[in-house]
Amino acid sequence: MAPRTPRIVVPIDLKKRPWEQTLPLHNRWHPQIPAVAEVTAGEFFRVEMVDWTAGCIGDNDSASDVKSVDLSTVHYLSGPIRVSDEDGIPAKPGDLLVVEICNLGPLPGDEWGFTATFDRENGGGFLTDHFPCATKAIWYFEGIYAYSPHIPGVRFPGLTHPGIIGTAPSKELLDIWNVREREVEENGLQTLKLCEVLHARPLANLPSTKGCLLGKIEKGTDEWEKIAREAARTIPGRENGGNCDIKNLSRGSKIYLPVFVEGANLSTGDMHFSQGDGEVSFCGAIEMSGFLELKCDIIRGGMKEYLTPMGPTPLHVNPIFEIGPVEPRFSEWLVFEGISVDESGRQHFLDASVAYKRAVLNAIDYLSRFGYSKEQVYLLLSCCPCEGRISGIVDAPNAVATLAIPTCIFDQLLQDIRPKSSKVPTGPRLMRKPDVMKCTYDGNLPITRNPSAASSSD
């Protein structure tokens, strides 16, 4: 007998807002957000998702929607989904929830996505001191491939994956998150810069009732007010998985998630058609609506059996991920290196973040010599299937980070991007227009400029 088609446990109507869905969405982590659906271990089921903004970013010719986006709503998630075994016994705290990604993709009729940078006054990002303006590029899908009219001359297969997949925290774990994140926000570096070189504020995103959506819990009730003041934002990855943005979690992958509450309460969202390692522009994958077709299993007592706490309590654990067998094949790469020396020439001690920033800046400046604007390259490196590595972390004082770009994503008839004796470039120059859509930056924060950089765009 042929297997059944997957049961849709969380349907999505793209014409409706998140709170209007048949099963309302949520955008916070909290143990008291009630499950909206239930599945049985071994069952083949389907979860549909809006893009992380639920349609606030449009397929249009302006980046103003990115500049003014309300980041208090990040991210809209489908779920929670309660998981029980074949005997009807729910997953228990201390178990491992095994989530297998059988299939995934964009929602039919919505085969497009976007990549963007936030305005420095509203979200910022990894290189916000170099790129303070809100920008946006639209991507269209042709089967497994993506192309953009705003970044011409590139086409690549997507390694599609969910940016967020995780279980609900217990109240004890939620309290741990809120205490430690409030401490770093209130007592962390008071300068503008994080790690003395990365321009990032805030240092943490603390619970906030603004923009909060709690699924079935009705806004305005005493219950809603209490939970909204405690519920954790979905922005960082944590012990429960969450916003890990691991690009290789595609078809055939398995995620081994710790269970902290009865039923596990699995949630997922933030679908990406493609992403580069690090998602460096912050709104940096090809963001889209989509679906996951999943199967779950429960390993009883699996947390103690397989996960070693890296902290003071048994809750200080992290998921394990098993990468699937279906990935694009690339044979030729151009690799850019960075070291722990910032743009001012200052030496940092084994700082991998500074080294990766340097590697990304090196790649942006290099590719801008071939006719691209630097904004085009920044968005491209955030969403194409490039690979980032911490290549050295022991040789004081320099950590070494690398960024590898598959050369075949570039149209070889237009451009061979490798260095060669005949200088730059040998083929026809790519046109910088149309460029990515770009807003003005109206803030007063200082902008980092590299006086030695190529001058194709500032």
Q: Roughly what percent helix?
A: 10-25%
What's the helix count?
Answer: 6
**Strand sequence of the main sheet, in spatial order?**
1-4-18-6-15-19
- Class from secondary-structure proportions: alpha+beta
Order of helices and strands: EEEEHEEEEEEEHHEEEEEEEHEEHHEEE
How many strand units? 23
Determine the N-to-C terminus distance: 62 Å
Q: Report the portion of residues in β strands.
A: 25-35%
Q: Average pLDDT across residues? A: 93
Enumerate the spans where pLDDT stays under 50 for 5 or more consecutive residues: none
Rg, rounded, reads: 22 Å
Principal-axis shape: globular
GO molecular function, one term: hydrolase activity, acting on carbon-nitrogen (but not peptide) bonds, in linear amides
Protein name: Formamidase
Pfam families: FmdA_AmdA
InterPro entries: FmdA_AmdA (IPR004304), FormamaseFmdA (IPR054833)
Give a brief rundown of this model.
By secondary structure, the chain is an alpha+beta fold. The chain has helices spanning 64-67, 171-187, 222-230, 302-306, 352-368, 374-383; strands spanning 7-10, 28-29, 37-40, 44-49, 77-84, 96-105, 112-117, 135-142, 145-147, 155-157, 161-167, 232-233, 237-238, 241-243, 254-258, 266-272, 282-287, 290-299, 320-322, 333-339, 387-392, 400-406, 437-438.
